[in-house]
Amino acid sequence: MPPPDIEAVAEQVFAALADPSRRAILAALASGGPATATDLAGRLPITRQAIAKHLALLTEAGLVTAEPGERRRVRYLLRSAPMRVAQQFLAALARDWDGPLDALKDHLDQATEGDIR
């Protein structure tokens, strides 16, 4: 199995995190542990149907996984792996910017010192 395409995984994670309802669902799962869509609807100001749609997208992005529970109820659990991949993507992007930003800062510092003299 080939390694995941870091940029593609990061894109899915960022798209999933763009919606405040999905962020609220992830926060609820992080603080309260695994939960069903019905459980989440009881904790959040979101309808169960909307939560189910958001959970489908979060599952597709790999941020949650569905686990069969008792009486055919599906519980959703957080998965941290895609978030780590997105963090790696951002860290690499930040490294790419560090050099040019440091050079700009040095240039501006030198220009400011020249103005003071």
Report on the structure:
With 117 residues, the protein is mainly alpha-helical. It has a single domain (6-116), classed as Arc Repressor Mutant, subunit A (Orthogonal Bundle), CATH 1.10.10.10. Helix content is 69%, strand content 9%. The protein contains 5 helices and 2 strands, in the order ααααββα. It has helices spanning 6-17, 20-32, 37-43, 48-60, 81-116, and strands at residues 64-68, 74-78. Strands 1-2 form a two-stranded antiparallel sheet. Helix 1 crosses helix 5 and helix 3 (37-43) crosses helix 4 (48-60). The radius of gyration is 21 Å and the shape is elongated. The model has no long low-confidence stretch (mean pLDDT 88).
Helix-strand layout with pairing:
Layout (H helix, E strand, L loop, with lengths): L5 H12 L2 H13 L4 H7 L4 H13 L3 E5 L5 E5 L2 H36 L1
Antiparallel strand pairs: 1-2
Helix pairs in contact: 1-5, 3-4
* Envelope shape: elongated
Q: How widely separated are the two ends?
A: 62 Å
| CATH topology grouping | Arc Repressor Mutant, subunit A
Total number of beta strands: 2
Radius of gyration: 21 Å
